[in-house]
């Protein structure tokens, strides 16, 4: 496994590999790796010859400086996991390397995608996400980039950016990885107690109810019943629950057969903000 820290070294190393005609996949991460991230590496290995994993806690996508400060950075364990997963290249830049002092201001028109749900709750978050992903795409020049479905809105935003910027990269969406009881794996789960982890299973139960009854009940009724499931657990504060059209993420009042929908859910448990979603129809 090749480990690089500078843009110049990364570009030079990948140029030699690219000249041999090998297909390159990028898996962007902020570290604190778990089975969800490793599943992205495995999926990338199925569709490309070379897998590049970036580890970079991107400051421009954090609204709360305390959240940035608290973000876990177990770098030695991350590298151990990536070696075991047979990752080819790890890119670990510093903030100064990614954001030099002469950095131009970044803004991209994301339409309504950064004004609803996560965009509304975390103003500027998706500008920061697109800024760093655009940088990574231009550095790595991947043929394909792998992202987890758990961050569904983020994927829609990145796909929108790829379209606007006309970038020659395929976005590959990988299924959310869950534990045996259904909890979506997340770096934030480590901040929950055992009791909190049990409570968090209610997110999966609520989303599953929506998925199983999507053809039988209206979105309004589904939301009401799912909120009832969430409230039964106690000490779960729902930030938002919505049934949306997949591409636009606009909330819907009726389900039209043949269209694709997604249920989005964000809730707080023990002071930890958990996000989850479930694709409802294709």
UniProtKB/TrEMBL annotation:
<feature type="binding site">
    <location>
        <position position="61"/>
    </location>
    <ligand>
        <name>(R)-pantoate</name>
    </ligand>
</feature>
<keyword id="KW-0963">Cytoplasm</keyword>
<dbReference type="InterPro" id="IPR004821">
    <property type="entry name" value="Cyt_trans-like"/>
</dbReference>
<dbReference type="InterPro" id="IPR042176">
    <property type="entry name" value="Pantoate_ligase_C"/>
</dbReference>
<dbReference type="GO" id="GO:0005524">
    <property type="term" value="F:ATP binding"/>
</dbReference>
<protein>
    <recommendedName>
        <fullName>Pantothenate synthetase</fullName>
        <ecNumber>6.3.2.1</ecNumber>
    </recommendedName>
</protein>
<keyword id="KW-0067">ATP-binding</keyword>
<feature type="binding site">
    <location>
        <position position="61"/>
    </location>
    <ligand>
        <name>beta-alanine</name>
    </ligand>
</feature>
<keyword id="KW-0566">Pantothenate biosynthesis</keyword>
<feature type="active site" description="Proton donor">
    <location>
        <position position="37"/>
    </location>
</feature>
<comment type="function">
    <text>Catalyzes the condensation of pantoate with beta-alanine in an ATP-dependent reaction via a pantoyl-adenylate intermediate.</text>
</comment>
<feature type="binding site">
    <location>
        <begin position="30"/>
        <end position="37"/>
    </location>
    <ligand>
        <name>ATP</name>
    </ligand>
</feature>
<dbReference type="InterPro" id="IPR014729">
    <property type="entry name" value="Rossmann-like_a/b/a_fold"/>
</dbReference>
<dbReference type="Pfam" id="PF02569">
    <property type="entry name" value="Pantoate_ligase"/>
</dbReference>
<comment type="pathway">
    <text>Cofactor biosynthesis; (R)-pantothenate biosynthesis; (R)-pantothenate from (R)-pantoate and beta-alanine: step 1/1.</text>
</comment>
<dbReference type="InterPro" id="IPR003721">
    <property type="entry name" value="Pantoate_ligase"/>
</dbReference>
<keyword id="KW-0547">Nucleotide-binding</keyword>
<feature type="binding site">
    <location>
        <position position="177"/>
    </location>
    <ligand>
        <name>ATP</name>
    </ligand>
</feature>
<comment type="similarity">
    <text>Belongs to the pantothenate synthetase family.</text>
</comment>
<dbReference type="GO" id="GO:0005829">
    <property type="term" value="C:cytosol"/>
</dbReference>
<feature type="binding site">
    <location>
        <position position="154"/>
    </location>
    <ligand>
        <name>(R)-pantoate</name>
    </ligand>
</feature>
<feature type="binding site">
    <location>
        <begin position="148"/>
        <end position="151"/>
    </location>
    <ligand>
        <name>ATP</name>
    </ligand>
</feature>
<dbReference type="GO" id="GO:0004592">
    <property type="term" value="F:pantoate-beta-alanine ligase activity"/>
</dbReference>
<feature type="binding site">
    <location>
        <begin position="185"/>
        <end position="188"/>
    </location>
    <ligand>
        <name>ATP</name>
    </ligand>
</feature>
<comment type="subunit">
    <text>Homodimer.</text>
</comment>
<dbReference type="GO" id="GO:0015940">
    <property type="term" value="P:pantothenate biosynthetic process"/>
</dbReference>
<keyword id="KW-0436">Ligase</keyword>
């Amino acid at each position: 496994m090749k480990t690089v820290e500078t843009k110049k070294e990364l570009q030079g190393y990948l140029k030699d590999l690219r000249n041999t005609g090998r297909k390159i996949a990028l898996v962007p991460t902020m570290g604190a790796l778990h089975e969800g991230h490793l599943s992205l590496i495995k999926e990338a290995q199925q569709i490309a010859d070379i897998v590049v994993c970036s580890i970079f806690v991107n400051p421009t996508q954090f609204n709360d400086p305390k959240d940035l400060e608290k973000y876990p950075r177990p770098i030695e364990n991350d590298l151990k996991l990536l070696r075991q997963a047979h990752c080819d290249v790890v890119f670990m830049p510093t903030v100064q390397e990614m954001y030099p002092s002469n950095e131009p201001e970044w803004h991209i028109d994301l339409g309504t995608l950064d004004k609803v749900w996560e965009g509304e709750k975390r103003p500027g978050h998706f500008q920061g996400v697109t800024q760093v992903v655009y940088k990574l795409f231009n550095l790595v020049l991947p043929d394909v980039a792998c992202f987890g479905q758990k961050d569904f809105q983020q994927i829609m935003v990145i796909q929108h950016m790829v379209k606007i910027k006309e970038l020659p990269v395929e976005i590959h969406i990988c299924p959310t990885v869950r534990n045996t009881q259904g909890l979506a794996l997340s770096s934030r789960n480590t901040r929950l107690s055992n009791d909190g982890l049990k409570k968090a299973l209610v997110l999966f139960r609520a989303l599953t109810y929506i998925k199983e009854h999507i053809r039988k009940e209206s979105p309004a009724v589904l939301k009401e019943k799912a909120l009832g499931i969430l409230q039964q657990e106690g000490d779960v504060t729902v930030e938002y629950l919505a049934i949306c059209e997949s591409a636009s993420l606009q909330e819907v009042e009726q389900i039209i057969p043949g269209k694709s929908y997604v249920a989005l859910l964000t809730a707080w448990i023990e002071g930890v903000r958990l996000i989850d979603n479930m694709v409802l129809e294709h």
